[in-house]
């Protein structure tokens, strides 16, 4: 399951090819890899765990911007937040990420928050990200 997905891009993660950007999928797969590695370290390599963090923090197509606001040298500073339509910044907020426009053009505008499928702070993605980071932290101690 993890190997074919990790080979689908040069970044070691499976990127969504649908209209909604794919950070949710990346976080859930990396979290699963982290939990599987914890119980079956001989079967699941840590490269699957750290590829997700690397991607979220800026190793992806289009730019080197971190998808987690306030994390990394270059990060999302303009998003569509809880006040909607107000160029929000919420430290620790996670956005959906890069959207692939047909046929294969990556888009991730950092100056315009109203493209919600790329730049909206999403509560369930942020919660999944927190679980992922806690699991990685516990794994590395």
UniProtKB/TrEMBL annotation:
Q: Which domain of life is it from?
A: Bacteria
> By its UniProt entry, which InterPro entries does this protein fall under?
6-hairpin_glycosidase_sf (IPR008928), 6hp_glycosidase-like_sf (IPR012341)
**UniProt record, GO biological process:** carbohydrate metabolic process
Q: Which SUPFAM superfamilies does the entry mention?
A: Six-hairpin glycosidases (SSF48208)
Return the protein name.
Answer: Cellulase
* Organism taxonomic ancestry: Bacteria, Pseudomonadati, Bacteroidota, Bacteroidia, Bacteroidales
């Amino acid at each position: 399951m993890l190997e074919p997905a990790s080979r689908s891009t040069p970044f070691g993660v499976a990127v969504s090819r649908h209209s909604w950007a794919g950070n949710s999928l990346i976080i859930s797969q990396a979290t699963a890899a982290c939990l599987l590695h914890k119980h079956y370290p001989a079967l699941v390599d840590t490269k699957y765990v750290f590829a997700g963090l690397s991607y979220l923090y800026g190793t992806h197509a289009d730019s080197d911007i971190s998808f987690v606001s306030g994390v990394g040298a270059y990060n999302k500073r303009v998003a569509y937040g809880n006040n909607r339509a107000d160029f929000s910044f919420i430290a620790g907020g996670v956005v959906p990420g890069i959207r692939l426009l047909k046929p294969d053009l990556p888009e991730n505008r950092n100056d315009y928050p109203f493209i919600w499928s790329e730049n909206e702070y999403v509560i369930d993605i942020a919660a999944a990200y927190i679980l992922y980071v806690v699991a990685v932290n516990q794994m590395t101690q």
